[in-house]
Design brief:
By secondary structure, the protein is mainly α. The protein has helices at 8-42, 51-93, 108-122, 145-201. It folds into 2 domains: 8-122, no CATH class; 142-202. The chain is elongated and about 135 Å long. Belongs to the LZTFL1 family.
Length: 202
Amino acid sequence: MAELGLNEHHQNEVINYMRFARSKRGLRLKTVDSCFQDLKESRLVDETFTIDEVSEVLSGLQAVVHSEVESELINTAYTNVLLLRQLFSQAEKWYLKLQTDISELENRELLEQVAEFEKAEFTSSTKKPIIDVIKPKLAPLNEGGTAELLNKEILRLQEENEKLKSRLKTIEMQAMNALGEKSELERALRDLRLDQGNQKVN
């Protein structure tokens, strides 16, 4: 069985997204097919066509298909942004900063791995269908439970860190004052010895 290197929960989330993407892809392909079918039924009624007529028909078909494909590509990009937004928003509740590697999106080996994963999950005759269940939306992780305890601990550590910074600053000031006093005492002692030496000479 193909794997993506994820735990079971995350792998099931990937499967759910792939099911959604496959459904959208199937609907869009049906729309493209209907463009050709409409052309056959509405324009290809004569037995012969001139070059200009064929060119006009193909240009019209090109415009329709181009519009459909462009619309799907734009929608797919926006859908991916919304998916990333969900993940990043959830991560930010835990004070995490996720990073993406755009170059990996064109990694042929990884793309083939995903293709094998999709094939294993959706075309295997022995694969049991995953029953769709109503899932709760991503809940804010800063409300109650473990997240609340984590946030409290983070705030406590931040406060303790500020106290330590303040204490360190105080100690540094005391050390600077002590060094200043030491320098003054050394200078006074040096002057005293110099005066004593001058008195002996006189």
